[in-house]
Amino acid sequence: MTELPRLPTSGGCRNTPILKQRGQREVFCGLTGIIWLHRKMQDAFFLVVGSRTCAHLLQSAAGVMIFAEPRFGTAILEETDLAGLADAQDELDKVVDELLVRRPDIKQLFLVGSCPSEVIKLDLAKAAERMTQRHAPSVRVLNFSGSGIETTFTQGEDACLASMVPVLPKTDDRQLLLVGALPDVVEEQAIGLLEAMGIGPIKVLPAPRAGDDLGIGENTVYALTQPFLGDTHDALTRRGARHLPAPFPFGEEGTTQWLAAIATEFGVTPDLFEKVTAAPRARARKAIAQAAEALHGKTIFFFPDSQLEIPLARFLTRECGMDAIEVGAPFIHKGLVGPDLDLLAAGPTISEGQDVDLQLDRAKSAKPDLTVCGLGLANPLESEGLATKWAIELVFTPVHFYEQAGDLAGLFSRPLRRADLLKLEGTQ
Amino acid sequence: MKLTVWTYEGPPHVGAMRVATGMRDLHYVLHAPQGDTYADLLFTMIERRDHRPPVTYTTFQARDLGADTANLFKTAAQDAYDRFKPQAIIVGASCTAELIQDDPGGMAETMGLPVPTIPLELPSYQRKENFGADETFFQIVKALAKPMERTKQVTANLIGPTALGFRHRDDIQEVTTLLSDMGISVNVVAPMTSSPQDIAQMGAAHFNVLMYPETAESAARWMERELGQPYTRTVPIGVGATRDFIAEVAAISGNEAYLDTSRLRLPWYSKSVDSTYLTGKRVFLFGDGTHVLAAARIAQDEMGFEVVGLGCYNREMARPIRAKAKEMDLTATITDDYLEVERVIEQLQPEMILGTQMERHIGKRLGIPCAVISAPVHVQDFPARYSPQMGIEGANVIFDTWVHPLVMGLEEHLLHMFREDFEFHDAAGPSHHGGHAPKPEDGGGPAPQPAASPRSLSGKMNEGSVIWLADAEKELKKIPFFVRGKARRNTETFAAERGVAEISVDTLYEAKAHYAR
Questions:
Q1: Whole-model pTM?
Q2: Catalytically annotated residue among B68, B79, B274, B400
């Protein structure tokens, strides 16, 4: 295979004690995941059962998408639904019937739990079962929770994918499953590279359509493309599939190692691996070098948001020459991000969870050159003189694999370049 | 349960946040689950605030449910006080916390914080954002304002402006100028710009200017009753309304009515010949009640439009809107369902829509020009430049904003003259407005295109059963695009009424003659 990445001489972060704090958390709930999932799963509708707050959240987070007839909506609970729970189930049936009549193209319907529906213990699992029978075979109804009390931001995707795993048909075929919703262009690149090495058949979860022949079984091996898929990982393991641990495919190094883990499993020769990856690796390195010029020697501070923080910190420190001060994640699953932690040189504070005021105090006293944070914090920090990169963009923008490596570095260098460009203060 | 994709208003605690964020030295402790902090970004992004909203969320999680959430609330409230040292605290629950029944108000009272602690009851499953703002401001005023000696000179409070309010920032300045020209100074502007200490001084004003009934009417009524302060009923949006407002202020204050019209341009612009083409433009109005009422008067009396429909999304204003509609011989559309608004617009086929962000998108979809007159709005409607809606400059701003999306008079004329010209054909659309520009070719642009099919949740989209003959269809295409929709609809109605199944060129022109004004 190709040369192994050097482990950091100072030791990695795998065994660094994690700073765990509890307090106010400035994060999205899992409902937000719907916004990108519904684009990926073209015959699915996501029906949130919640309050006006849930609808308002989706509208605020989805921005202009809301005007493009999205395949998601909120069944807003009203006073009468709260009075008696039997009512709520009938009401839900009514809303769903109405919806399916209006949107006959829907093949998968997800009932998405929210904080209010979880707190009143509205049994969406039972509702989903009942509706599956009622609307079989044209529509499959599943449920998962995207509530804030249980899920943070990207965990919504995890909960959704995990809900699909138990109903996948069984297959004994030897196959590779790529897990995690990626922009189509990125997914095609990944599959292209793997197929060029003779690896196949390759399936993806989530599949674009419910009817796609996706099965699972003991001869399935799977690679995760996203670090936040802990529950999906567990569900797949329960179905007998086997995980291929690897760093996540960000940057040239991450992508190469991720591919290498799969190539090893499928017995790809080093020569073939080299032949397939040499050109895109060189391209990625060149693109990163250009985009990362502004990043060398700069310090970075991550607020928790998406669980992408650890792999991204690994990419930025190793391939772009940045120094990490704190890497905060909403949740750290060592079984998944362990390989990334191994590569991340010891030094930064690794934190899980949040007490936002205390974390802001740390960030302000550390004065990082770049702070990665949510939209509720970005402008306030900018006004205090800290350059920020708002984190949600990292989830929506194609950033995985070789061809996006330069764009990924560019997302981080742009705020710094802009700060250099603007001459706004003290003009004489 | 009600299926919802778009909501005109957020939940009531967002209204409370609008009050808290508008104020200074006030803190809001909100009992809410992890995730509800999303609302912060409305203020930091849409309104581009450079500070975090003064809101502490308890952000409870599933593992906290049970006895622990009450403790979580107390800790959060204590921490918020210690860190921010506000002059007063408001406490309340979001929709989820309302269900777990921790009673934030009661808990906060027992904590003995050394500043006033004002509990909020905001029924999340019945009411919405505007109610939340109105109720919160009312509770704050009720708790802090006291009767006191009036100022020696005539002063007024400006009440109603909040964070995330449509043009509230600049309306404050404009109304302050109007009053100042009459020798009246402003005592307190609230909730926006004021601190709890300022609220305590509100009783010193001689009267209140109720700028936005949606967010301050309850407080205005209470102050009238308890502090003896009358409040203004006219909202000074538009020239006529501004004049009425001045007269009303004169009557309340005893000061002489005075309006400096040296910068007022709307009346002349509207009279000038280039505006003749505005005559009878059919407009549909939708938004919050206050802005729609004001817009109806401007549209009819000051722009010479024909109002073909109006409505509002906030039920609190349903009565005045219905009354206005009746006066104009129309049916009011009172709904918070955008699909219903879309249906009404489709049916009315107006030449212009004056509405919210949502109506802008409906307009885009239907190819109808639109200007924004009311919240909810996106970031572009919190502009850097001075752009009030109220008073003299507000009238100027409104004239420009409403006229801009329409094809200008001369341009309309030229399009008529040269519509067969290969470079200047009508499909090219007006030069300054993207709404009519030819749609990008397949895969041609990054703009999100509406899903092709099935068209929408509204389902139906039946073509009429009337058939257009090829010649008539060709003739129809010669009609400029901005009136073609109306011509098509009129002709079809004309044909249907007469039981004509096929539309020929003659039918087209018979219909034209029939509908000629």
A1: 0.89
A2: B274
